[in-house]
């Protein structure tokens, strides 16, 4: 129970709200709010029976702590932290590694900041009151030391234990799982040789000037719970990453759900290869994947002749289904035509053509000047043009012809092959080839399963949203800390999805996770005092009706402010 107490300073009496808390195992008086002199205090409570001194963000913090209690996150993390030289588990500032990771994950879910700015965010929340502890001394060094205590070999073990608990508590059905990869740009200096994960590559956010780190993610069909993640070098292609991840995914699923017979793994065409499909076949895992249309032109030609129309999600689309041998194994293939995909491809072709025209015109000017700036032989010019025109679909429709201006001086003209463009438009664009070993599934089920790839892309959008659950900002530059940082971010997202699932289940909440976290932040905890009393109390402030429904769904009430995790912050045994 908090109370109002006086203190003397330079001969004057000042008042403050204090509370007794255990810090490093010992009871200490913690100041919650400075109130000022007696006159100041009198003015604040004048003509009021009850008045509020301060309010804190509460709903998001308390909801995340509840899920952390259910998942037993701190114990699971501490279970895989090795003993230090003193023979005990890692402790710093009275907190176990699991406690520090949980605090970092809650901060990341509510407001992504640097570890240095975490304390500033904490002062605006009810986190200390909920956990009956003081975190004012937690600085960036605290989190770095705690992160350093976790070996990277423990990361998959922690995630497996958390996922097992998640599946058990939330009754998750891992029948259809979606896999994909993305990357996150960093500001790690190019000359920094202390890490190998950050590399330059094809960045999804167009930051080609920066080093990036890759993440592979596996999520569920319902609510997109993360079941697996992998951090990898930023210059690795999707297909090799998928190959490396498959065995780890199989082991994770065998341990969590007992086998692969009821699981269908969904992935896009960027992840496939002959070796990857062979690995899937050997594991007897069901899958729905994509094939690159340009590698299977004969299949597309056959589909163009024999396709029929079916209705999916109120949309009529041409499809063709065939069971055929692909990479040494009989598989069911479905060729469909997507108007949306075709529209996007045509838009991309025109954008690329415009860029090619600009480059070709500039080169043509240089070659045809009376005193040309550059002089190329026929072979050199052919090579230069081939390099400029190269690109998906572009080299099939954009043609160039060389001619000689005068002795040993060459130029060129270019044009669009309309016949080739029409053939591309009517026979190739918009085609999508799906491949599966779910031979008993209907065509509609297979197509809808593949369309579910949008679910993992939705998870990536949340991990890149700067306001909640974001991987960035990240200021770590060693491989070990980068991997641990990504684990903390995935735990933060896991907690947020669990909270979102609770609210959606009980209230049919209409918005997304980001909006829910904003709404939860608007549920505030007030520090209230009564007139003529030295006692203060904490209670949830009045709120709109829609927030009351969320409170009821998450059991957020004045009787449930404190967290049961308070007694476990320094508990480090398994």
Broad shape? elongated
- The portion of residues assigned to helices is 40-55%
| Low-confidence region ranges | none
Q: Over the alpha carbons, how many angstroms does the gyration radius reach?
A: 30 Å
Task: Count the beta strands.
Answer: 19
Query: How does the helix and strand content classify structurally?
Result: alpha+beta
Number of helices: 20
Q: In order across it, which strands form the biggest sheet?
A: 9-8-7-10-11-17-14-13-12
- Average pLDDT taken over every residue: 88
Proportion of β residues?
15-25%
Distance between the termini: 31 Å
Describe the main β-sheet briefly.
Answer: 9 strands, mixed
SSE topology:
Elements lengths: L2 E7 L2 E12 L2 E11 L1 H8 L4 E8 L1 H13 L1 H7 L11 E2 L2 E2 H14 L7 H5 L4 H5 L8 H9 L5 H17 L5 E10 L26 E9 L5 E8 L4 H20 L6 E3 L7 H9 L3 E6 L5 H10 L1 E5 L2 E12 L2 E9 L1 H30 L9 H12 L4 H4 E9 L2 E8 L1 H10 L3 E6 L6 H9 L1 H12 L14 H29 L5 H9 L2 E7 L5 E5 L4 H10 L20
Parallel strand pairs: 7-10, 10-11
Antiparallel strand pairs: 1-2, 2-3, 4-18, 5-6, 7-8, 8-9, 11-17, 12-13, 13-14, 14-17, 15-16, 18-19
Task: Characterise the protein shown here.
With 574 residues, this protein is an alpha+beta fold. The chain is built from 20 helices and 19 strands. It has helices at 38-45, 59-71, 73-79, 97-110, 118-122, 127-131, 140-148, 154-170, 238-257, 274-282, 297-306, 339-368, 378-389, 394-397, 418-427, 443-451, 453-464, 479-507, 513-521, 545-554, and strands spanning 3-9, 12-23, 26-36, 50-57, 91-92, 95-96, 176-185, 212-220, 226-233, 264-266, 286-291, 308-312, 315-326, 329-337, 398-406, 409-416, 431-436, 524-530, 536-540. The strands form five sheets. The chain has a nine-stranded mixed beta sheet, sandwiched between helices. A three-stranded antiparallel beta sheet has the order 1-2-3. Helix 3 packs across helix 4 (97-110). The longest helix has 30 residues, at 339-368. The chain is elongated. The relative contact order is 0.16. The mean pLDDT is 88.
